[in-house]
Amino acid sequence: MPTAFTRGLSPTFAACELTHLDRKPIDLARAERQHRAYEAALADAGLEVVRLPDLPGHADSVFVEDTAILLGEHAIITRPGAQSRRDETDSTAESLSDRFIVHRLTRGKLDGGDVLRIGKRLYVGQSSRSDCAGIVNLAGLAGRLGYEVVEVPHERCLHLKTGATHVGHDSAGRDVVLINPDWIDPNAFEDVFLLPSHPLESFGANALRAGDRLLHAAAYPYTAERLRALGFDVEDVDIGELEKAEAGLTCMSLIAD
């Protein structure tokens, strides 16, 4: 059974790290309701939802994707680019150790949100949160596990998956990458069909495959219609309050096939 590992919101969530957005007041109760609805959507899609231990002193800890990369029976524990997040990784490693063979990056910095997997290829964003040393370290570990790493420099969004996500296969059997071409260079991807997000929806390129469904933020209906036109079963999920912390649908879970 596919599994989604999540983590609850910290009471200090409003003090989260911000890189590209201005800070706005966050209604914590509303954010928690949206997060519970997000977990419910994962469960409704047929995934087992497993909550990792809460980390109340870590404002960004709900963004559990940044702390690990799941590759089959292996889990690679990352080195988050924000120093304030480094201690989150010990909890993730301990929690995953009974289900996965755990490896750890030891050099550089790298956020899981910068890693986009398509088959045996890992597209890895070089960003303010993930540097060359971290990517080289990942390439060495992932290479021994049979994965190729392709570097994708970007600077206009927080993570690679803020501006590009693999949404699965369309009705023609093609791998489809939903992309904001203003943020991520389309030429970085090989052997895929590129679907641009709607020009009016800069953040519309982040979507999360959950079983046979595709979860997509409710704020971007024009992009959702483009996905439906390709045959995807799209479920709109409201994460508006969470987005004030630069959240995306992918960053709040670790998905194990």
TrEMBL record:
One annotated GO molecular function: hydrolase activity
Keywords: Hydrolase
InterPro entries, sorted: DDAH-like (IPR033199)
Keyword Disulfide bond attached: no
Keyword Disulfide bond: no
Similarity annotation: Belongs to the DDAH family.
PANTHER family, sorted: DIMETHYLARGININASE, DIMETHYLARGININE DIMETHYLAMINOHYDROLASE
Protein name: Hydrolase
Organism of origin: Sphingomonas astaxanthinifaciens DSM 22298
